[in-house]
């Protein structure tokens, strides 16, 4: 077979590989390796290496031939030390090195790595297509012979074909990454579709002082890039508030990716968050970017952050501190630009003290804590909440927006709402389905007498049973009100509570207590 025939066959092989290269079937490394193998049929060599240009340094990416060994794959060349290679790239022409070049010119590119004899055959081929420079391909023979001119010319053409194939592979990988990122966002939404409730009016035009302050603080932090920790009972609308912050941030044009950490399988949690390479584990038939890369440039909402295993917490801390993630099965880290909003119903400070949550991660997450108000403590907002929720429920039940009778509203006002706004939404949806007349009556809600008696069973609001953390928050607020916000000194809140002032300030931060007066 003639040299022209070998070149034609090699070009067909590269074209076939490029058509397959969509980031899954054929990787760039496979393309380079198979390209070097084909080149050996055209231009004999003992060592052929593809160097990728990174900045001003050439890094070995693929190697082939009987002299190929591990240290060759770690080889690096600075372009400043090899002006003849730089010239080959700039002129896009192959360069054949002679004995004089090695002795009086740049020196041998493999000095210190390979012991080639003086005068051995050596050729460098640029891998350039259009404005894109991938690097160079080097061919070396241990024999002191020269490459024929015809072989040099054909190898140069082959290098152009290989560069074009590399460009096709890279384009395919970029498109695949974009598609996979979209798939990640869709998958994240699918995982949440049964959990997300349209928790309307989390902030809204509230009559509650604490809710209005929450709205003010949320707008304040939205304009920054700071990490936010949302603290609240189940169903208080933490995801709704996270979306509120995202939509008022500079990242609003980029993705908002929600993920419930408690809903992800423990065995694949790290892969879901940080991505994985193909073949990283059984079943990893293709690479996935992960949720961090899916949210790149936008916001990643990590709900139920307290459910993360300790080993994953460490990797999350590194991602927050360094802005880098390391996909499972990869030796390289990937830069990401993601704002994290975390949420929990747990007391993370107590969890950290008990060793169930990393203390350093807790402090990194709680840069700006926001505490959501449970529904039972903002029942004055019930009419506005019901109106907003009914507007969102109507399309789901396929009916016009139903009205709420005074009797039904009064019945709803007598509940404790352990499920908060999510529970209210479910009750209203049940009533909307049953309300044939278009008006939800009390009996449409399906509430038992026992439930209706829960708030009126002999307890005053002051005696209402609340969590230990909520009780602590209320008491500290009462003491601060008494001292006009004064913490330090004689008669200050710290002295009354029997706590060091710094400890009191730490608890106030954890509980979301704002101090606006006093010193």
TrEMBL record:
Q: Does the keyword ATP-binding apply?
A: yes
Looking at the Swiss-Prot or TrEMBL record, what is one Pfam family this protein matches? Answer: AAA_lid_14
CDD domains from the UniProt entry = AAA
Any idea which UniProt keywords this protein has?
A: ATP-binding, DNA-binding, Nucleotide-binding, Transcription, Transcription regulation
Q: What GO terms describe the biological role, i.e. biological process, of this protein?
A: regulation of DNA-templated transcription
Keyword Transcription regulation in record = yes
One GO MF term on file is: ATP binding
Leader peptide range in chain numbering: none
Q: The organism sits in which domain of life?
A: Bacteria
Matching InterPro entries: AAA+_ATPase (IPR003593), AAA_lid_NorR (IPR058031), GAF (IPR003018), GAF-like_dom_sf (IPR029016), Homeodomain-like_sf (IPR009057), P-loop_NTPase (IPR027417), Sigma_54_int (IPR002078), Sigma_54_int_dom_ATP-bd_1 (IPR025662)
Q: Which residues form the Sigma-54 factor interaction domain?
A: 211-433
Q: What is this protein called?
A: Transcriptional regulator, Fis family
User: What organism is the protein native to?
Assistant: Chondromyces apiculatus DSM 436
From the broadest rank down, the organism's phylogenetic lineage runs: Bacteria, Pseudomonadati, Myxococcota, Polyangia, Polyangiales
């Amino acid at each position: 077979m003639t040299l022209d025939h070998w070149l034609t066959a090699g070009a067909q092989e590269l074209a076939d590989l490029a058509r397959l290269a969509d980031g899954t079937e054929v990787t760039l490394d496979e393309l380079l390796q198979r390209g070097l193998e084909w080149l050996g049929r055209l231009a004999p060599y003992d060592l052929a290496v593809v160097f990728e240009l990174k900045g001003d340094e050439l890094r070995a990416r693929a190697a082939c031939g009987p002299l190929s060994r591990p240290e060759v794959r770690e080889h690096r060349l600075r372009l400043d030390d090899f002006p003849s290679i730089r010239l080959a790239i700039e002129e896009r022409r192959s360069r054949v090195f002679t004995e004089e070049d090695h002795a009086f010119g740049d020196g041998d590119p493999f000095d210190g790595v390979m012991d080639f004899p003086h005068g051995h055959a050596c050729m460098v081929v640029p891998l350039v297509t259009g404005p894109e420079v991938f690097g160079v391909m080097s061919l070396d023979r241990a024999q002191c012979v020269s490459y024929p001119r015809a072989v040099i010319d054909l190898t140069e053409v082959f290098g152009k074909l290989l560069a074009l194939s590399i460009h096709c592979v890279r384009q395919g990988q970029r498109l695949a990454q974009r598609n996979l990122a979209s798939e990640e966002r869709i998958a994240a939404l699918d995982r949440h579709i049964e959990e997300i409730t349209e928790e309307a009016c989390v902030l809204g035009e509230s009559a509650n002082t604490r809710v209005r302050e929450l709205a003010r603080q949320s707008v304040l932090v939205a304009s920054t890039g700071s990490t936010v920790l949302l603290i609240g009972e189940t169903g208080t609308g933490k995801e709704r508030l996270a979306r509120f912050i995202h939509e008022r941030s500079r990242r609003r044009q980029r993705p908002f990716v929600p993920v419930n950490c408690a809903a992800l399988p423990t065995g694949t949690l790290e892969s879901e968050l940080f991505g994985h390479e193909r073949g990283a584990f059984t079943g990893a038939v293709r690479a996935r970017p992960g949720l961090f890369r899916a949210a790149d440039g936008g916001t990643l909402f990590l709900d139920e952050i307290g459910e993360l295993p300790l080993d994953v917490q460490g990797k999350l801390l590194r991602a927050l501190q360094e802005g880098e993630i390391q996909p499972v099965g990869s030796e390289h880290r990937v830069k990401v630009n993601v704002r994290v909003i975390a949420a929990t119903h747990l007391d993370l400070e107590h969890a950290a003290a008990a060793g169930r949550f990393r203390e350093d991660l807790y402090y990194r997450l709680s840069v700006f804590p926001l505490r959501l108000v449970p529904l039972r403590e903002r029942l004055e907002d019930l009419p506005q909440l019901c109106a907003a929720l009914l507007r969102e429920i109507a399309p789901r039940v396929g009916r016009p927006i139903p009205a709420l009778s005074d009797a039904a509203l009064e019945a709803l006002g007598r509940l404790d709402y352990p499920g908060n706004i999510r529970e209210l939404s479910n009750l209203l949806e049940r009533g909307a389905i049953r309300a044939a007349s278009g008006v939800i009556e009390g009996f449409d809600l399906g509430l038992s007498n026992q439930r209706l008696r829960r708030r009126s069973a002999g307890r005053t609001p002051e005696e209402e049973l609340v969590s230990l953390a909520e009780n602590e928050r209320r008491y500290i607020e009462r003491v601060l009100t008494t001292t006009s916000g004064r913490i330090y000194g004689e008669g200050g809140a710290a002295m009354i509570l029997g706590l060091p002032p710094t400890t009191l300030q730490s608890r106030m931060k954890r509980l979301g207590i704002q101090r606006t007066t006093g010193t």
